[in-house]
């Protein structure tokens, strides 16, 4: 293994090294068949086996009920922002949205093209530093769904519990899928871009309850209908074969690590280490309210923007990469997804203490 | 290099081995920076350089004029079938389509959702075995564009010359882009899925004339507007970084081979070899009319379906893979894109002669 930097990037993000090694081998010569992975027809029995295995791993690790389809689509989570209301809403139909960050704001904008959108909660005025408690919003009975983003990458907030309100949840889990156990039956649609906890950019996982496949209005193009992809096992057209393959490799690794429950425990331990470092020293200040803190993206500030720039540069020189906060809020952010090693956090915490002692 | 099969698959298809080797190296450790290619933020300076280089290669190799944007989108060519009319048409607007195969038929179906579609030519009744001569169709003056598919992968037909009619062409070049020289200025939009002549599945190249970016109706979702992606250099959301990287590697290889004109000459030689083998023996019969023959996909039949099955199986055992015709027309098909080596065709031709001598 070459010397690796500690990659705190929010996505595309660090992946298990064993997955990279396996991908490198299969790219030039898939299972010694004399053909590279990315050269294989998506309809070859070899690739069909890869796709089937990947779907089976999603089902097993997330305990996906029988009445849900697992799809691998393109266009990123951003394409789900419009596909969901395009498929589920229409004239006279209503949905409720919780506005907890940039990605929900974007989703709300697209949804308004297709229905009557009720924004039942927003933390925009406090720089999206929290997610709501249950008693802070109401969901109209006529709402088709309650939409939320489970983890807000930019602001470092996360729903510790999912809402009990609303007849059906629709959730953007791009940055925390496979990081904790879930009760899928509460959800109508779960979607997630792969490039944080699952693999490379270029594929979006969609888990959709089967009865929703038939609600699409007639004028929706073929490629934008969930049913098109569900009916063809995500092979209506050529799927992003490499990205799907990588998701399968990452999920195999995740299973070897003990599955989602074991990963959740590790994520809690990893995040606790980092939040202790933030809270244990007046020099650092967490951005998110404590009850809303994310286990995936830890956001914090230093006393001044100048010190933040110095901190980030010094950290980078030591091999801690990607600590700069999103350009919309500044500050620092450490993204510590499933594949991020605990030792990287221990080392960062030590560096944070040193830096604070020196500059504080 | 491991022993490689001859991969005649229609796509995903064979790629230069040097590209596979380079990708394998960069996936585990990009330019020895201690981070894998697919782990890097799309906004890192390293990946931005990859994306810029890839765009520059497209511009240089295809001689793309200044007033065209080069985009890297997701969703496959199939998503362009609806995005084009969604962006360029609308109530009362008209477009003309030439129906020369499965992919144009699908494009026509989507276009009808957005405008008045005139199908000015169809070879469907003769199993799409030809493309039209100029005098076989007319284009209404009120048509916004004339739509065609330059090369029909399934049927093995290709436009040897592009139509002179219509004020502007819109063209699906998924299976012959970068295989021959072009005059881009005739086109409003050119698009192509990468998985035939450019790279792996998962990215679609779109070349669009700038003045078309402002014609999109207001109710089109953000992600489906060409302008969204043009304004952000294809980085409005996370792009499929690995696929874009691979396209850059393939185009670097193409440039080393002498560029598009040199590739065109080689493609003509390669196809001639194979068509001579088809024509030189009564045992084989080409599917496409001679004037419409494709340089990329050579389709042919044997005297009976049983002999075809035998031919395909025997060929596969010898390392000639993917010769089975598309399920919609049966028969045999040899896809010989840019990266397919001439020696593979020479060997297949020798096998065809042997097989005909034995069974004919």
TrEMBL record, chains A, B:
Its cofactor is pyridoxal 5'-phosphate. Pathway: Cofactor biosynthesis; pyridoxine 5'-phosphate biosynthesis; pyridoxine 5'-phosphate from D-erythrose 4-phosphate: step 3/5; Amino-acid biosynthesis; L-serine biosynthesis; L-serine from 3-phospho-D-glycerate: step 2/3. It holds the Pfam family Aminotran_5. It is found in: Cytoplasm. Binds 1 pyridoxal phosphate per subunit. It is an enzyme of class 2 (transferase). This is Phosphoserine aminotransferase.
């Amino acid at each position: 293994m070459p010397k690796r930097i500690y990659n705190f990037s929010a996505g595309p993000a660090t992946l298990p090294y064993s997955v990279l090694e396996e991908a490198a081998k299969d790219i030039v010569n898939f299972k010694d068949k004399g053909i590279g992975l990315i050269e294989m027809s998506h309809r070859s029995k070899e690739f069909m086996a890869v796709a089937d295995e990947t779907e089976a791993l999603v089902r097993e690790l997330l305990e996906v009920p029988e009445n849900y389809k697992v799809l691998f689509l393109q266009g990123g989570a951003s394409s789900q922002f419009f596909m969901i209301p395009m498929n589920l809403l229409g004239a006279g139909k209503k949905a409720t949205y919780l506005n907890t960050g940039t990605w929900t704001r974007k989703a709300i904008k697209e949804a308004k093209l297709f229905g009557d959108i009720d924004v039942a909660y927003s933390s925009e005025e406090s720089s999206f530093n929290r997610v709501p408690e249950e008693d802070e919003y109401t969901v109209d009975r006529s709402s088709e769904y309650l939409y939320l983003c489970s983890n807000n990458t930019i602001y470092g907030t996360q729903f510790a519990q999912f809402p009990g309100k609303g007849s059906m949840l629709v959730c953007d889990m791009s940055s925390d899928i496979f990081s904790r156990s879930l009760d899928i039956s509460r959800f109508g649609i779960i979607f997630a871009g792969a490039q944080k906890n699952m693999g490379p950019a270029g594929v979006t996982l969609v888990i959709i309850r089967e009865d929703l496949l038939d609600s699409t209005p007639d004028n929706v193009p073929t490629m934008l209908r969930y049913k098109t992809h569900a009916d063809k096992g995500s092979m209506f057209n050529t799927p992003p074969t490499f990205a799907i393959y990588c998701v399968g490799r990452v999920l195999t690794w995740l299973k070897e690590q003990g599955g989602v429950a074991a990963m959740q425990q590790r994520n809690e331990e990893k995040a606790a280490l980092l939040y202790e470092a933030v809270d244990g020293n007046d020099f650092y200040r967490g951005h998110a309210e404590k009850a809303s803190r994310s286990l995936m993206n830890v956001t914090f500030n230093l006393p001044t923007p100048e010190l933040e720039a110095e901190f980030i540069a010094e950290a980078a020189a030591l091999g801690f990469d990607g600590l700069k906060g999103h350009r919309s809020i500044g500050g620092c952010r450490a993204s510590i997804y499933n594949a991020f090693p605990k030792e990287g956090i221990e080392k960062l915490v030590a560096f944070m203490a040193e830096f604070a002692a020196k500059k504080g």
